[in-house]
Design a protein that fits this description.
By secondary structure, the protein is an all-alpha fold. The protein is 64% helix and 1% strand. Strands 1-2 form a two-stranded antiparallel ribbon. InterPro entries: Glycosyltransferase_ALG3 (IPR007873).
C-alpha cells in the first residue's frame, strides 16, 4: 500500500515508486486493482475487509476452475484436491497476493477459449498479464490454441489486442521520461530473486543457483520441452510435424482446412495446451516463490488425471506437492519434491491420451449409443 500511496500522490516513474517491500515491479493493472483495494479497506488498514474481498475472489476463481473441469468431463472426486489446498487458502485469504487476480485471469481465459471465444479469451489472458508477467509462461499454449482455433488472421488480431491493452493500461506511465522505465520495471526479464526465498531449486546450492550456466541450462530445457510438446501434442490438429505446421500457416491455409482444424480445438485440447505450457514454464523457472502456487494448485489435479491417473495416483501426488509447498522456509527435501512433482506433471501432460479419446459432458437429451 506504500506503493499505492505514492501513486496517488502523483508519482509516475516506476523506479521511484518503492517501499519496505522494495520497488514496484508489477504491471499497471496491479496498481489499479490495489488502488481500488486501498480505498475499499480504509487505506489498507481494514485487513478483515480485504480478507473478505479475497475470500470472494477465491470462491469466484474456484467456480471458474470447476466450470473448466466440467467442460472436459472431469470426475466429481477431483473436487477434493481442488477445494482443500491449505497453501491456496493462505495465498488468497491470508497473504492477499496479486497472483490471485492473475490466476483468475488465467482460468477465465481458459474457460472462454474452451467456449471458442478466441478474442475475449485472449484479451482476458492479457488482462491477467497486466497484473503479473508470470502469465507469459502460458503464452506458447495460448498462441498455439489461437492459431489453430481462430486462424492466422484471428491470432494476429488477438495478439495485437493484448499489446494494445497493455499500452492503454500503461498510459499514465508512458510520457517521454517514464515510458522506458515502466516497461523495464513491470516486465523485467532479467530480475533475479533471492536464493533464500526460493521454493524450488534450493537443493542445488546457492552458488549453482546464482550461476549464469544454470540460468542458460534452464532456458535450453524450457525451449526443448516447448518444441517437444509442439511436435508431439500441440500441432496435431493441423500437421504431423513442425515443418508441416509452419508451411501450412506460412502458405495461407485454405478456408475449408482452417475450419476443419478449428473444429478439433476442443475444451480438452485448450486445457491440455494452456496448462501444459504453464507447468513447463514453472518447472523451468529459476526461482518460484510461495505465491506461484496460485498458478499450479488448480492445474495439478487435471494434469495428473489426464494421464490416466485414478484417485490414489492423483491424491498421493497432490498431497506430496501440497506438503512441499507448505514447508517454510523451504529445505533441500521440500524443494526437490517441488521440482519432482512439476516434472511428473509435465510428463503427464506429454503422455496424456489423444484429445479424441476424451468425451466432454454429455448434453441433456442425448443418449449414448
Amino acid at each position: 500500500m506504500v506503493h499505492i500511496r505514492l501513486f496517488l500522490d502523483g508519482e509516475r516513474q516506476y523506479s521511484k515508486i518503492t517501499g519496505p517491500t522494495g520497488p514496484l515491479v508489477y504491471p499497471a493493472l496491479h496498481v489499479y486493482i490495489y488502488t481500488a483495494l486501498y480505498h475499499l479497506t480504509d487505506e489498507g488498514t481494514n485487513i478483515l475487509r480485504a480478507q473478505v474481498i479475497f475470500s470472494g475472489l477465491y470462491l469466484i476463481t474456484l467456480a471458474v476452475v470447476l466450470a473448466c473441469y466440467r467442460r472436459v468431463g472431469a470426475p466429481p472426486w477431483l473436487l477434493v484436491p481442488l477445494a482443500l489446498s491449505k497453501r491456496l487458502h493462505s495465498i488468497f485469504v491470508l497473504r492477499l497476493f496479486n497472483d490471485c487476480w492473475a490466476a483468475l485471469g488465467l482460468w477465465v481465459a481458459i474457460y472462454l477459449l474452451q467456449r471458442r471465444n478466441w478474442a475475449a479469451g485472449t484479451l482476458v489472458w492479457g488482462l491477467g498479464l497486466g497484473v503479473k508477467m508470470t502469465l507469459l509462461l502460458a503464452a506458447p499454449g495460448v498462441g498455439v490454441v489461437l492459431l489453430q482455433g481462430a486462424g492466422l488472421a484471428g491470432a494476429v488480431w488477438s495478439g495485437l489486442s493484448v499489446l494494445l491493452s497493455q499500452m492503454v493500461l500503461a498510459t499514465p506511465f508512458l510520457n517521454s521520461a517514464t515510458g522506458v522505465d515502466y516497461f523495464l520495471r513491470a516486465f523485467d526479464f532479467g530480475r533475479q530473486f533471492l536464493f533464500k526465498w526460493s521454493v524450488n531449486w534450493r537443493f542445488i546450492g546457492e552458488d549453482t543457483f546464482l550461476s549464469k550456466g544454470f540460468a542458460i541450462g534452464l532456458l535450453v530445457v524450457h525451449v526443448t520441452l516447448l518444441l517437444t510438446f509442439l511436435q508431439a501434442k500441440w500441432i496435431r490438429p493441423t500437421a504431423s510435424s513442425l515443418w508441416g505446421f509452419v508451411t501450412k500457416y506460412l502458405g495461407a491455409i485454405n478456408e475449408s482446412e482452417r475450419t476443419r482444424v478449428s473444429q478439433k480445438i476442443s475444451p480438452t485440447f485448450v486445457m491440455d495446451t494452456v496448462l501444459g505450457s504453464m507447468v513447463i514454464g514453472l518447472l523451468c523457472a529459476r526461482s518460484l516463490h510461495y505465491q506461484f502456487y496460485a498458478y499450479l494448485g488448480w492445474a495439478t489435479p487435471y494434469l495428473l488425471w489426464r494421464a490416466g491417473g485414478g484417485p490414489v495416483w492423483v491424491l498421493v501426488n497432490w498431497a506430496v506437492q501440497e506438503y512441499s509447498w507448505l514447508v517454510f522456509p523451504s529445505t533441500d527435501m521440500s524443494s526437490s519434491l517441488v521440482v519432482l512433482e512439476l516434472a511428473v506433471q509435465a510428463m503427464c501432460a506429454l503422455i496424456a491420451p489423444p484429445v479424441d479419446h476424451i468425451r466432454g459432458p454429455m448434453k441433456k437429451g442425448v443418449k449414448s449409443g
